[in-house]
Amino acid sequence: MASWLIASAIYIGKRLLAILLVLLGVATITFAVTRLLGNPVYLLVGQQVDKEIIDNMVHQMGLDRPLPEQYLRYLMAVARGDLGISRVTQRPVLVEIKLRLPATLELVTAAMLLILVGGISLGVFSAMRPGGAVDRLSQFITRLGVSIPDFWIGLILIYVFFFLLKWAPVPLGRLSPGIHSPSQVTGLLVVDSLLAGNWAALLSALGHLVLPAITLALVAVPSTIQITRNTLMQILSSDYIRTARAYGMPSRTIYFRYAVRNDIVPVVTMLAMTFGFLMSSTVLVETVFAWPGVGLYAVNSMYQLDYEPILGVVFLSALFYALAYLVADLITFAVDPRIRAQ
Amino acid sequence: MNQSLLLQVNDLRVEIGRSDRRVRAVRGASLMVGRGSRLGVIGESGSGKTMMALATLRLLPATGMATGGEVLYGGRNLLQLSEEEMQRVRGKEISMVFQNAVSSLNPLFPVGQQIADVYRYHEGASREEAREKAIAMLDAMGIPDPARRARAYPHQYSGGMAQRAMIAMALVCSPQLLIADEPTTGLDLTIQAQVLDLIKEHIQRSEASLLLISHDIAVVAESCTDMAVMYAGEVLEAGSLEDVLGKPSSPYTKALLECFGVKSDERLSSIAGQVPDLRSELVGCPFASRCEPVQDVCRQEHPTLREIRPKHWVACHFA
Amino acid sequence: MIDGAVPLPVEKSGAGRVRRAHLRQWLLSPPVLILSVLVLCAIFAPLLAPHDPTTPVPAEKLLPPSREHWFGTDPYGMDIFSRVLYAARIDLSVAITSVLLGILVGMPLGAFSGFVRGRFDEVMMRITEIMQAFPPILFAMAVIAAAGNNLVNLTLILAFLNVPVYLKMVRSVTLPLQESDFILAARCGGHSTLSLVGRHIIPNTLVPVFSQFSLSCAYAVQMVAGLSFIGLGVRVPQPEWGSMISLGASFIIFGKWWPAVFPGLAVFLTAYSLNALGHRLRRIVLRET
Asked: Where are the beta strands (DSSP E) in A79-163?
């Protein structure tokens, strides 16, 4: 028992180290990009300002120190969670991001639910009957889905469901004007309004969530269907499933007891990675639907030439990606005895 | 059907492959497995022996199907049973062991549990009973420390041990017929002998029958009572081991035996030529292109299996 | 032909005819046709466009599609059809250039990495891992904000994002080759690593790279449109699909669908045919290997 714990600890330790290295790399490249590609001060105050003011700011921001020192300071700041100060609001970037993170989380979670239900079930049914009607539908959706720009389809959805059919609410933000938002517990409006018993807010929040979630889900549904279908097909044609069939195991046992367990690792890994990926892919969808998440925050910061927030969001996205990798690895470790053996 | 016959395959035809690349893997193969006998099917790779075995249990891959003939067992044609009926046959009446045992076991489940699952499904046993039965079977197969081994995973087994575990799974419900497809290929020679002995011993003890498929005559000679020779999807000769090895009547069998140096005065030889293209329709004898004493009639007329002496069949115009 | 075997009927002249028929079928397939049309539109935009794509005509704001304006007019009164044609030049050239640059850098690095292995390879793998952890759109935003908002920077960023893809692909093709016999023979012949990589490895990677090229371009076109949708890379009057969609976005809720839909349709058709072409090429590559 103890050896199992030690083995797990070592494995987790190794993965954490790998993630730290990746994050270090991301921070380094971000640092390099900002310091080496242009003078951030110009970006902050524009070019028409007195030299004296510029020099002042340079000194204040520590930009006149030697580069290695700047790099170390930058790393230490990031490690502390200090992602800089927003030039526009003068508040720490971390605070601004924390304010907007729940909106993005809610959007991504809703999209993940759609992906789970739609994408995985389509993939599973396609694998069970290759070449059948469901399979052909899946291929069609996949072929279309990888070529449709998400922001464009979002606009089309708005046109159809808001303008033509009048089913969707005005595509601006998370709640209709005039609805009181529930008191903040998690920041996730659906959860908060449920907790507060605020049905009007719940309905409004859900209504506003539908179109953006569908649009975002579309980004990942094609690959979800593909991966689910392919991994399941590989499993169903494997030697060990053939053995199970050869011993008369009924289909329900083969599917629900064996194949599912064999498919958990690749599917859950894929879902974790999709979550990480979506967390960094909300920019365009949030822009189209004026969804007040971190993606829109980055875009607005860019328009306002507020530079630190963009870097902060970049770093946050890389962090989510890395965490997603870690979760996927841990699940693999937990389920597959062959990995544990190493 | 003859009561002393357990399994009878008549003129079986199997096609496999996608629509543009369809291969006729088995083209009219016939053989018989008697009660309590052990039939070895020998043939080169591509001769259709594995496909024939898979077709018997209706385990062909998705792209394959049996397009003709019948497989008679227990008075029924297995090719016509429903999937549910076949599920009751597989593992219980007829079991099959495959070549690569480690990959034939599910990597995410303990070996003992996989054996127990088979027992539970077919015999309706409880979880406890099945678990103990699995351990008992592993023990009977000569696996040391069976209780611990039952909890282990397939990747922790060596090739030979995994094959023993597979055989345990195959025999757990005491089937009438065991089909073994190249069970010893890829194993060390000493392990090969052990596995073959194991199979032979348990088959004999339970008075079951064996259908052993191999490309190695030595393996068949060692473990079987009867022998069938397959080539290009057909059975060209079949009979008792003594008859086929001692009085081979098909030119192919003779050539094959020469290759294995059974005729002790010959040096190792090989058969010139190539196996015919299995995608196309064959006219005449499949071995005609490589047969030394070939005549015109061989290329034009297809020879059928006929009994040249009691219980010895050959498909050749000149046997 | 083997004695006794009667093969299924095949054309008399055999392989050549079959291959030519395949090629013809391939050239006339929808993706290739659509792509050719798009490329021709891009090249001959000045000849094909019925109206001036960059001169605003306030009197003709937001007119729906008609015989005069096939795709209608945008909020500045400019003909959308003409703008879509001209925009093809920018979108297609930026996408293709960025992928080519990515290949130019990624391919040699990948071949070297797979060939030489060892420390260099390890470092390359870590670097690609880091590069691929960067969210593409956010990264582009960060870099453009630092380096300046123009098409050149946009192209360079997209090229940067393509490098790890080709690096990994070429490396994975190189790994099995590195251990092959003919490389061993060449090494015994005293060839330098550089010439080995250049002369023997690279040519073997061209085919898979080529099939991936089309797929990368499909992705790149969507990225260009997406980035310009949020204002990166393009100045306002310049016709470009993404910025046109952005312009039309605010009018969707008023029912004026054409300024946003038609440019998006162009992006979709381009991406779709590039993807379809890439998949066909990939299938051919797989069949040959």
From this structure: none
